[in-house]
Write a structure and sequence with these properties.
The chain is α/β, with parallel strands linked by helices. The protein is 34% helix and 27% strand. It binds 1-O-phosphono-alpha-D-ribofuranose and uracil (URA). Uracil binds at residues 90-92, 159, 178-180, 203-204.
């Protein structure tokens, strides 16, 4: 047990899928895993462990934002020995050719800052996905016929953004979408020598202003879960 995770040693698998939303964790575990058991409910941050095609998998919420994700990812890696972390998140699209419900695979994650800023100091470290996971996820998405985009995303500290100029800059530089966790997940994966990837489903569109309701964000993004599971064990 850790301060934030109540699971017993051995109750967390080496492969963890991390949605921001703990209720998406519950839905995904009960929908896609066999024999899913709840292994954490500290602070309501639900985690479940089961198997997928015989492979042990944990699906655990990260909460919203990089500081929250950092707490769970640190404890999962350092205390529970997790080796592969795949974020399964929602995001806002920033390009016209990206549509609602499309899947984005985050090759890199730009940011204004991350919780690792104090460690990197003057270094502009470039957080990037694990290439093997990224390639396997792209293959899995194409095999499923999912509309998938691979490229850079923006990890923001705010959902309610007051910088239209910044979004314009991101859009002009080809950033595919915005979310709030991937950059720090990639920083931590690099620091501890583990694999990480962010697989995102477009829930909002910054250009068209379309937006899916919260129920859809919680329990309808099945393609990204299956892409993440397939990539983890490719
Ligand atoms: O749907 P999740 O995985 O929580 O991801 C996105 O949704 C939240 C904001 O609504 C942020 O956590 C953002 O990164
Ligand atoms: O962080 C997020 C997530 C979904 N949609 C957004 O616009 N931002």
């Amino acid at each position: 047990m850790t301060i934030h995770i109540g699971a017993a040693p051995g109750d967390i698998a080496e492969t963890v899928l991390m949605p921001g939303d703990p209720l998406r964790a519950e839905w995904a575990a009960k929908t896609f895993l066999d024999n899913a058991q709840c292994v954490n409910r500290v602070r309501g941050m639900l985690g479940f462990t089961g198997t997928w095609k015989g492979h042990p998998v944990t699906i655990h919420g990260s909460g919203m934002g990089m500081p929250s994700l950092s707490i769970y990812a640190n404890e999962l890696i350092r205390d529970y020995g997790v080796k592969t972390l795949i974020r399964i998140g929602s995001c806002g699209a920033m390009q016209e050719h990206v549509a609602i419900r499309d899947v984005i695979l985050a090759m890199t994650a730009s940011s204004l800052s991350t919780p690792s800023r104090g460690i990197f100091r003057e270094l502009n470290f470039a957080p990037c996905a694990n290439y093997g996971l990224l390639r396997a996820a792209a293959d899995a998405a194409q095999a499923r016929g999912v509309s998938v985009h691979v490229g850079g995303i923006y990890s923001s500290d705010v959902f309610y953004d007051e910088r239209p100029d910044l979004n314009e800059m991101m859009i002009r530089h080809g950033i595919l979408g915005v979310e709030m966790e991937a950059a720090e997940l990639y920083n931590l994966a690099a620091r501890y020598g583990v694999r990480a990837l962010a697989v995102l489903t477009v829930s909002d569109h910054l250009l068209t202003h379309e937006a899916l309701p919260s129920a859809d964000r919680e329990s309808s993004f099945g393609d990204m879960v299956e892409i993440a599971l397939t990539a983890a064990f490719a």
